[in-house]
Amino acid sequence: GLHLLGVFRRRRPKEPPLDKGHIPWLGHALDFKNNKVEFLQKMQRKHGDIFTVQIGGNCITFVMDPFSFGSILNVTRSKMDMNPIVKQLVARAFGYHHLENEHKVMEATNKHLMGDGLVVLTQTMMKNLQNLMLHSIGTVKNQKEWQYDGLLHYSSNTVFQAGYLSLFGNETVKSMGSKEKAEEFDWVHSEELFNEFRKYDSLFPNLVYAMLSLKDKLEAERLKRLFWNVLSFKKIMQKDNVSRWIIDHLQLRQEQGMAEYMQARFMFVLLWGSQSNTGPASFWLLFFLMKHPEAFKAVKEEVEKVLKETNQEVKPGGPLINLTRDMLMKTPILDSTVEETLRLMSAPGLIRAIMQDMDFKMADGREYALRKGDRIGIFPYISVHMDLEIHPEPHQFKYDRFLSPDGIRRTSFYKNGKKVKYFTMPWGGGISMCPGRFLATNELKQFVFLMLVYFDIELVNAEEENPPIDQNRVGFGIVHPTRDIQFRYKLRF
Ligand code: HEM
Fold first, then answer.
1. pLDDT at position 4
2. Residue 70: pLDDT over 80
3. Whose CA is nearest to atom 41 of ligand 1?
4. Ligand 1 contact, 354 CB (< 6 A)
């Protein structure tokens, strides 16, 4: 028992500094959960750029030196693997049990989120986003008047609905009787689903830490069942325009003999993975643009230039805007703005399980012994995104931070005179880097593009401060604001 509590754990020769905290087993769990950034910075000041801390029964070695990240991100799964951790997490949060060769199935399907697959998805997303935006304003009596909404609510709702419909498909005209009825059903159904998704997503961090109250546990159970039902194999197979990504995931799992109820659980994993970050990211992006008039002006000019160069015009009753993947490759200002937003607001914790006793070499040559069964982690938000040298004035939003003087994307950033390979890491890195990053970036760009060409938008309170961030979300990806911000929008034509 005492062994399990970590009481006898001692630092062995060559191992990184060990800090177990004062509470057996829990160690530093509470400090870590309350404020990860503050906790890790405190440990870094105390121990330097590599240290091992005990957190809830696990010993995690944090490496804070960005030059040493490659030795964690690019090693083989036989040495460091995220799968055992993800396996535990998805079982707890989604009731899904991994296949033996889970990562092979993941890899086989990723192609649909990139290359030619991305061309198709970008087009579907474009149609869904525009239909949703114009439909929601179309239901308003006087469309020329300002409409008021919470920016987080508006952005997350729109991006969720469009993302969900683009990946999981539309209701069929056959089942609904007409195209209009099928569209109406999609809009109503995806908005209802968004409201349930938001509830589940807000329970997510405490669900992962196994810290839900009984009432919240019951609510999480209800929500899980609802999603398993909506995303069942049969229901998805009855839809139109289901993405190849989803179809292939279902087919490959079917071939492996996975039960249909387990496939539905996996569909919920994919829904959460594809939608939990894009909503808050779209909120921050529009928020920063509205707070920074110089950025707003630069992006708007670029957007209008693309429209003009592609001979498109926004007019009442006119055709939908067509914005292809290739057109989205010619927007360096918008790219930089998205990258800057993600630098400021993404705080993923990248943790791997150490699969064998091994030596670990830091970039400066120092060597440490790591133990099988421990974990190793990096926290790019502290080590890279907020590093004063890599990104001067790191807390400031500078829309052109990622632009070179000649107006193209800047990719050279330095620390101690040396070029930093991983200068932002919103998508993680190495073998498990987010496969949806191209789709997500396009989606964010499409959303902003459309908001700027169709609507006048502004904050209700132009002096609005940056809202505080929800500490509970730090470590999971894009952070959330603790409160919504009011904004208003009206059709430009
Ligand atoms: C702003 C939006 C997004 C952010 C910030 C984001 C971020 C991340 C991060 C940090 C990881 C973990 C990487 C690692 O541990 O190395 C990840 C994994 C993943 N993401 Fe994303 N993501 C976003 C959108 C999406 C979208 C739109 C999709 C799919 C359509 C997606 C699909 C996935 C999948 C399937 C994984 C698991 C990869 C694996 O385990 O091999 N993500 N994402």
1. 66
2. yes
3. 432
4. no
Beta strands in 297-442 (DSSP E): 346-348, 350-354, 358-361, 367-370, 375-378, 414-415, 418-419
Token digits of residue 308: 């003009």
Choose the weakest-confidence range: 64-78, 126-140, 260-274, 461-475.
126-140
Q: Which pLDDT value is given to residue 315?
A: 84
Helices 260-275, 214-230: crossing angle, 10 deg rounding: 110
Asked if pLDDT for residue 3 goes beyond 70, the answer is no
Which DSSP symbol is given to 409?
A: B
Task: Give dist(CA 136, CA 460) in Å, integer.
Answer: 20
Domain 102-343+441-491 has CATH 1.10.630.10: yes
CA 281, distance to chain mean position in Å, is 8
Asked if 243 contacts 124 with a C-beta cutoff of 8 angstroms, the reply is yes
User: Is the distance from the beta carbon of residue 353 to the nearest atom of ligand 1 less than 6 Å?
Assistant: no
Tens of pLDDT, residues 397-451: 999 999 999 999 999 999 999 999 999 999 999 888 999 999 999 999 999 999 9
Our mutation pick for probing the ligand 1 site, out of 427, 443, 474, 476, counting the most ligand atoms within 8 A of Cβ, is 427
Confirm or deny that 92 is annotated as ligand binding. yes
Torsion, Cα 336 337 340 344, to 10 degrees, reads -170
432 CB within 6 A, ligand 1:
yes
Determine the 3-state secondary structure of 108 from DSSP. helix
Given this model, what pLDDT does residue 190 score?
A: 97
* Minimal-distance CA residue to ligand 1 atom 20: 434
Is any ligand 1 atom within 6 A of the Cβ of residue 169? no
Residue with tokens 């209009």, as numbered in its chain: 180
What percent of the chain shows pLDDT beyond 90?
A: 88
> Is 409 annotated among the ligand-binding residues?
no
Annotated binding residue 366: no
Give the whole-angstrom CA distance, residue 407 versus residue 405: 5
Say what the ipTM of the complex is.
0.98
Q: Which pair of tokens denotes residue 232?
A: 């069942």
Q: Whose CA is nearest to atom 31 of ligand 1?
A: 436
> Is a pLDDT exceeding 80 seen at residue 168?
yes
pTM here is: 0.96
- Give me the half-sphere count of Cα atoms (radius 13 Å) on the Cβ side of residue 337: 29
